[in-house]
Amino acid sequence: MIIGLTGGIASGKSLLADYMGGWDLPIIDADAIAREVVEPGKPAYEEIKDFFGNDVFHEDGTLDRKALGSVIFGDKEKRNRLNNITHPAIHDEMMKKKEALMKEGNQTLIFDIPLLVENGRMNTVDRVLLAYVSEDVQLKRLMERDGSSKEEATERIRSQMPLKEKKDYADAVVDNNGSRGDSKTQLLHILTAWGVKVDD
């Protein structure tokens, strides 16, 4: 079974991933793969260079994520172009890792994909697990975590699909508004209900 773990910024998704990793469930992390596919020499790297030019690269040739982010932030066309370059590469790499892990005999895999719903990737997983917090908790935690102002944090949260909307797409929801122990208990219940063997 492939479980798609998703959430939003400061929603506690990493906490759930840490628990599942600690229980020896293999995790394929879309964000980590997104960094791998734009390393020098990779096809996506060359495509980004061709389209965006040298301004979005550091002097050592590595991708300058901050510069690229500011280029695409207010430009939907360029953002779509970047997505069209990187998303297929990320998808292919995730599928390769999935095949390798399945061959090793793993019964359950976790796809950690923040934009699972937004990018229409739900067809790649069997179950969708959502890390959820209320908007006020999300805002408070993001401000504390990044030291950002209320305005900055609000803007970042609003740039994503609201978590309460994502609930409609989830097969199960872990409510992370409470304590870590509470989140862990909920997660264990969900995995057990789905027939996933966990050694806690």
TrEMBL record:
GO BP term (any one): coenzyme A biosynthetic process
Main subcellular location: cytoplasm
Keywords: ATP-binding, Coenzyme A biosynthesis, Cytoplasm, Kinase, Nucleotide-binding, Transferase
Domain of life of the organism encoding this protein: Bacteria
Subcellular location: Cytoplasm
InterPro entries, A to Z: Depp_CoAkinase, P-loop_NTPase
MF annotations from Gene Ontology: ATP binding; dephospho-CoA kinase activity
Pathway: Cofactor biosynthesis; coenzyme A biosynthesis; CoA from (R)-pantothenate: step 5/5
HAMAP family: Dephospho_CoA_kinase (MF_00376)
Annotated protein name in UniProt: Dephospho-CoA kinase
Gene for this chain: coaE
